[in-house]
Amino acid sequence: MDSDKKSELKGHTDPVTNVKFSPIDENLLLSCSGDKTLKLWDTRTNKLIKSEKTKSGSKNITWSHDASMFAFSNKDDDQISIYDMKKFQFLKNIQFKNKITEFEFEKTNSILIVTSMVGSLYIINAETLDENPLAVLDAHYPPINTLCIDRSNKYFATGAADALICLWNMNELMSYKVIKKGEVPIRKISYSYDSKLLAAIYEGNNLDIFDSQTTECVYSIYTESQQYSLAWHPNKYVLAYCGDDKNRNNVDEGNIHLLINQV
Amino acid sequence: MKENSKEDGQIIQNNSQVNFKEVLNKSMSKEFTGHKKRVYTLDWNMTGSLLASGSVDCSIKVIFSF
Lengths: 263, 66
What we know:
The complex is a heterodimer.
Chain A: E1 6-9, E2 16-21, E3 28-33, E4 37-42, E5 47-53, E6 61-63, E7 69-73, E8 79-84, E9 89-95, E10 100-105, E11 111-116, E12 120-125, E13 135-138, E14 144-149, E15 155-160, E16 164-169, E17 174-180, E18 186-191, E19 197-202, E20 207-211, E21 217-221, E22 227-232, E23 238-243, E24 256-260
Antiparallel strand pairs in A: 2-3, 3-4, 4-5, 6-7, 7-8, 8-9, 10-11, 11-12, 12-13, 14-15, 15-16, 16-17, 18-19, 19-20, 20-21, 22-23, 23-24
Chain B: E1 4-7, E2 10-13, H1 20-25, E3 28-32, E4 39-44, E5 50-55, E6 60-64
Antiparallel strand pairs in B: 1-2, 4-5, 5-6
């Protein structure tokens, strides 16, 4: 891994809250920020392709699997806006009665799965984008903080303040397994490319990696400071994670960590 | 049907029991510096050739990987 090859995308004027690469173009990146803009970047040239003003700063963005749409939430966490990617045009707003956290399109664009702060999952029709959910599934003791659909689109996992990770079957929309270790709220989870491992970061310290079939914890990392995000590499057992690392003088270090498994 | 996939030199048989503890214990860690403040978000591109990160410092960094 070439650590000297780094580039910087400058343009946001407030903290960058989310970055997501296109699922079909390896050089196309969407970002959102407290500066109330969504920005589309070309990572080949490091140039800004588009900047779109939004009503409020967003914390979460997600692409549909075919990159035909993307969705982002608002500052108040009670609305998801959907955009047509090709026209880069606003399509629809979906309003929620309760605050929502993370959301992802099922990979054939049949549904949008939305996790909420009241502990339920909202299943939204991704074709009509009707704000009346197709179903509301009771899931966790609130709030649900994180959602991850696996690469195969057969399973998804949710992690919540109740310290549980629920594993769900996509076809039946039913939870078939629960991973529990300790009492600490789950902050964020990520499936490995082959769905066999599930990595989780908690409120506070620690990152755990679980075997998704046996639910056993197979690896633990003590993290000095709070981590905010993690993501498995798309075809290797390499895990990236980042957070609030500080140096001895309590100054932000801005580190990105990698756990690399190359035997 | 057994499927063998070559993963960085190690053959992993999909149907047999993989000792993940053993596999992961052979991991190494690496750190990238560059952001001046907390890093909120990161994402790999679809091929895994790039890793992007976003920070409180208002910038996005892109690392060329593997």
